[in-house]
Specification:
The complex is a heterotrimer of chains A (329), B (156) and C (499).
Chain A (H helix, E strand, L loop, with lengths): L1 H20 L3 E6 L6 H16 L5 E6 L6 H10 L6 E4 L4 H6 L13 E5 L5 E6 L7 H6 L4 E5 L5 H13 L3 E5 L4 H9 L5 E5 H9 L3 E6 L20 H15 L3 E4 L5 H16 L1 H9 L7 E2 H12 L3 H10 L5
Parallel strand pairs in A: 1-2, 1-3, 6-7, 6-8
Antiparallel strand pairs in A: 3-10, 4-10, 4-11, 5-8, 5-9
Chain B lengths: L1 H23 L4 H27 L18 H25 L1 H16 L4 H22 L8 H6 L1
Chain C lengths: L1 H11 L2 H19 L5 H14 L2 H26 L9 H11 L3 H36 L2 H18 L3 H19 L2 E2 L6 E2 L13 H20 L16 H10 L1 H16 L7 H12 L4 H6 L6 H24 L5 H12 L13 H31 L5 H17 L5 H20 L4 H24 L7 H27 L1
Classes of the chains: A alpha/beta (329), B mainly alpha (156), C mainly alpha (499).
Chain lengths: 329, 156, 499
């Protein structure tokens, strides 16, 4: 009986969704300016989502940059209407902002209606190939100091090596202040710095060019670097491991997509299904391959679990974490 | 006008740089270095300029920048500047209260009729053209987010 | 290398890529003209259409669109005193002043012709420099880039008014700009500096709203005061006739135009300097070409050289900025970052190969920029008459339109009302500066270079401790800095001695 009712409900839902979304406009609010990774992902999705949402609504992208996307998150959390027509995508490190009690945060990452994540972020540490270190072990044993370039606190270019230095005892000097991660690559080529950390996707062209070689990665992985050692595994104490895990937890939810907390569950379901289908859409896959984006759907429930994991850490871990990691990029 | 403005600016810069130095004093040195290195000389220089204006001879330095027109009597200049400033601020207030799509035609029409003294037909047609261009390009084509004005959210 | 040049040209001259380039040019024309339509935003919007095109056509389209923006941005600067693009702000100082004297046609002609010369000279300087470009970029590390920023800041001295009092005001203006550049989250300790608990200020002061405020608002107030058309009380017929005169001016001051083009190319090649710097350095250099104090006073009041310099530099920098993008994979601006995406579409990997194996492709891009600029300039000359006539329309009718454009132009930086507020605040500051006789150019330079200078200083010290001061290029740049600051003073003293 329950099965029958469920079936009837599901059958009724699809045309209801079609009725709801037909002729409407869905807005994806991006917490960054045009041209960045979050924006590019959103635009690719915006092009292919309409086919997979019953009713084929128009999907547009709006940019709401500011405060590393805290402004956009606040907007989607409280200001946007909970009508299933506004989706927000922003900085994956926002749970850290909430955790470290950054001022101005008006949202709760666990309360959003989570559609899911469109990709996970794989952070690697890459060293210039003409240096004698072929693996992370070599690096650790090195007597010479290695210079790593970074953009600023809050970005994985800075946070990842910082924890390596603090907890894994790698003899590295962190030089921060580069305008963008591309500028760090230039510094690598100039031999001003010896390497950098960052997203595998953005470093990959330089790996292919044989300028740098990846030696270590964080928890989330991508094809090509699965065999690299993971920083957490090498942590000397459980506390160190917990802190490293805390830093990399948000990376699984690399491109978060959420809706207003009070969004009706049927709309959330529609969106989750649409996202999952769109990301598997062969046209989207072809396009994202051309744009060198690796999209992969992570369901909203998994995302909520990660958020809860991050935000329920014991106080002493959070305190020590805050000493090293500040919210930034 | 010239020296009053210079005094006002000099005092303003003194205030700004003074505040900047005080605020930066308590930051970690890496964050504070530049603001202090710039703020302290800036404070000294602006104090010098203020003193110069107050106690030096009235001198008009020929700056390589655009000069406001001198064809009009000074009192008129002040009056017209103030009026224009009021219109500009008023436009901003209209945008915040009513949102861009409403404020734009409202302001254009009002300005044309009230300040520019244009006829009804011209004002209406011109406003319609400007609004069509603005709406067509920035709303329809580019989907720029224009939040609804505060007045409308208060009502609803 | 000559063969590569020829091959590159041949790659471009197929009708389909050319057609798409024209389409890009047509689009880029409006993007540069209208404040509010940013180059980066539009490029991103065009991306979906690009995936449907063939790679070569896509690239021609993107590049054609981007190459033109600097040229048409100058038009809005000259006609209305509103910076159509951040890179066109310097043209306002003399260009709009000329428009107010009824010389809009001449100013436009000069801006367009110098843009063309800038694009061509920049392209060829690039082609010639290709063998040394990689070593050049690799030699300019963070210490050298810091010193370059300091040289730029020292230019503030030469952009100031003459005399000690003038210098004081110049440094006040520049110092204020540098201080404003520190607003936002700092990249060393992550502290939010001077943000007053406002989330909006976290990212610092955005350049476009500030530029629009500090330049356009005083112009509007002036227009309202004068109660005339922009061109003033001059008869309508004369305004557009000057275009040819403007072209002749470009050749009258040919060497200046060339030098400014080279400045633009060089700054474009340097990664990380930013697109807005080149025009101000060129403007500063142009003012230095004034031989007497009388002549220098003319700058800011409508000296055509003040149009030629920035006009040439902001186009030549485009060719230059291809180098970090193409040869190193380091995009010089958001637009270049998107172009880089187009690169991957073509299956190309930016790197040293682009300067050796794939040199013809690099040259084809250079040729695209040149041809796009030629086409634009020719098209603009056809419309020049009508464009210049705008300055004869009643000012009171133009004011609301310009204001709408200004407000939208600054709003679209961040889609935040804070931008408009910023424009208003700096509009007031700009107005006060104009009335008080404080030069505005140093402020802009300070704002633009502040962050760059600070970051590179920290990197230099962190990486090299104190040793960075003894690097050869750094020493040369220190010498140049001192020369830039003290040369005008020496000149004046010499003149006073002679008098």
């Amino acid at each position: 009986m329950r099965l029958l009712l469920g079936l009837i409900a599901a059958l009724a839902a699809a045309p209801a969704a079609a009725q709801y979304y037909a002729g409407k406009t869905v807005t994806i609010v991006v917490g960054y300016k045009t041209g960045g990774g979050y924006d590019a992902t959103a635009r690719v999705l915006a092009r292919h989502l309409p086919k997979h949402i019953p009713g084929k609504p128009t999907v547009i992208v709006q940019n709401m940059p500011g405060a590393n996307s805290i402004i956009a998150a606040n907007h989607v959390y409280a200001v946007a209407k909970p009508d299933g027509l506004t989706i927000g995508t922003f900085n994956r490190n926002l749970p850290i902002a909430q955790l470290t009690k950054v001022e101005g945060v008006k949202f709760d990452m666990t309360k959003f209606a989570w559609v899911g994540s469109a990709a996970s972020e794989c952070t690697v540490l890459a060293i210039r190939t003409d240096l004698p270190y072929k693996s992370f072990e070599d690096l650790r044993k090195s007597k010479q100091q290695i210079v790593i370039g970074a953009t600023g606190p809050g970005a994985n270019t800075y946070d990842f090596p910082l924890l390596l230095k603090e907890f894994l005892g790698v003899n590295l000097k962190l030089v921060s202040g580069y305008q963008s991660s591309a500028d760090i690559m230039l510094a690598v080529e100039r031999k001003e710095v010896d390497g950098r950390a960052g997203s595998f996707t953005s470093i990959r062209p330089f790996i292919d060019r044989n300028l740098v070689r990846p030696v270590l990665r964080a928890r989330a992985t991508e094809p090509g670097v699965e065999n690299l050692p993971i920083d957490e595994d090498l942590a000397p104490t459980p506390r160190a491991k917990a802190i490293m895990a805390l830093r990399s937890a948000p990376e699984i939810v690399g491109r978060p997509y959420v809706m207003h907390p009070n969004t009706p569950p049927e709309h959330l379901r529609t969106m989750r299904e649409a996202f999952a289908a769109a990301i598997k859409d062969p046209e989207l896959v072809a396009e994202s391959k051309k744009a060198r984006m690796d999209l992969e759907f992570v369901d909203g429930d998994v995302a909520v679990k990660v958020m809860n994991e991050v935000l329920s850490q014991p106080k002493d871990i959070v305190e020590e974490f805050s000493k090293y990691i500040k919210f930034g990029e | 006008m010239h020296s009053h403005a210079s005094l006002a600016l000099a005092l303003g810069v003194m205030a700004v740089s003074g505040y900047a130095v005080i605020a930066a004093w308590f930051w970690p040195w890496k964050a504070a270095l530049f603001p202090l290195a710039i703020g302290i000389p800036l404070f000294v220089l602006s104090a010098a300029e203020a003193a110069w204006v107050l106690f030096g001879k009235a001198e008009r330095s020929e700056v390589q920048d655009f000069q406001l027109t001198r064809d009009v009597a000074e009192r008129e200049v002040v009056r017209r500047s103030a009026t224009t400033a009021a219109w500009i601020v008023g436009f901003f207030a209209a945008i915040v209260l009513f949102g861009f799509p409403v404020a734009v035609p409202f302001f254009v029409f009002l300005y044309l009729k009230q300040q520019a003294d244009e006829g009804w037909i011209f004002s209406t047609v011109f406003t319609a053209a400007v609004w069509a261009f603005f709406y067509g390009l920035f709303d329809r084509l580019l989907h720029l987010p224009f939040p609804a004005g505060w007045a409308f959210t208060w009502i609803s | 290398m000559i063969e590569a040049l020829g091959e590159g040209l041949f790659l471009v001259l197929h009708w389909k890529p050319l057609a798409f380039m024209m389409l890009g040019v047509a689009l880029g024309f409006w993007v540069g003209l209208l404040p509010g339509l940013g180059g980066a935003t539009t490029l991103a919007l065009m991306l979906p259409f690009i995936y449907a095109m063939q790679p070569v056509e896509a690239f021609a389209f993107l590049l054609g669109m981007h190459a033109v923006v600097a040229t048409t941005g100058d038009i809005t600067s000259v006609l209305f005193g509103v910076p159509g693009e951040a890179a066109s702000a310097a043209t306002i100082l003399d260009g709009h002043a000329m428009a107010k004297k009824g010389e809009a046609g001449r100013a436009l002609g000069a801006a367009l012709a110098s843009s063309l010369v800038g694009a061509i000279v920049g392209a060829f300087a690039l082609a010639i420099a290709i063998p040394i470009v990689r070593p050049l970029v690799l030699t300019f590390g963070s210490p050298e880039l810091f010193m370059l920023a300091i040289v730029g800041i020292a230019f503030i001295a030469s952009l100031s008014a003459p005399g000690v009092r003038g210098m004081v005001r110049g440094f006040l203006s520049g110092g204020l700009g540098l201080l404003c550049a520190t607003v936002g989250q700092d990249p060393q300790a992550g502290i939010a500096r001077y943000t007053f608990d406002s989330l909006y200020l976290w990212g610092g002061l955005d350049l476009v709203p500030v530029l629009v405020g500090i330049f356009a608002i005083p112009e509007i107030i002036d227009l309202a005061i004068r109660r005339t058309s922009i061109a003033g009380k001059l008869p309508a017929g004369r305004v557009s006739k000057g275009a040819l005169e403007g072209v002749k001016d470009t050749f009258r001051h040919f060497w200046l135009t060339i030098r400014c083009s080279l400045i633009g190319t060089f700054i474009g090649i340097m990664p990380g300097m930013g697109g807005a710097v080149a025009q101000w350095m060129a403007y500063g250099h142009a003012t230095q070409s004034a031989r007497t104090a009388e002549e220098r006073k003319g700058f800011g009041a409508g000296d055509v050289r003040g149009v030629l310099g920035p006009g040439a530099a902001n186009n030549s920098k485009e060719g230059g900025s291809l180098i970090p993008t193409v040869a190193f994979g380091v995009p010089g601006s958001t637009a270049m970052a998107i172009l880089l995406g187009g690169f991957f579409l073509l299956g190309l990997v930016p790197g040293p190969d682009m300067l050796t194996k794939h040199l013809p492709i690099t040259f084809s891009m250079v040729w695209t920029i040149v041809i796009a600029n030629v086409v634009t300039v020719i098209a603009c000359f056809l419309f020049l008459d009508h464009l210049a006539r705008v300055t004869t329309i009643r000012g009171t009718v133009l004011i609301p339109v310009i204001l709408v454009l200004i407000f939208i132009g600054s709003y679209t930086s961040n889609n935040h009302y804070g931008d408009i507020l910023l424009t208003l605040v700096f509009g007031a500051v700009g107005y006060l500066m104009v009335v008080a006789g404080w030069p505005r150019a140093p402020f802009v330079l300070g704002l633009v270079l502040g962050k760059i200078a600070e970051n590179y200083l920290y990197i230099s010290v962190a990486r090299y401790d104190a040793a960075w001061l003894t690097r050869p290029v750094v020493l040369v740049l220190i010498a140049i800095t001192l020369a830039v600051i003290f040369w005008p003073l020496v000149q004046r003293r010499r003149k006073a001695a002679h008098a």
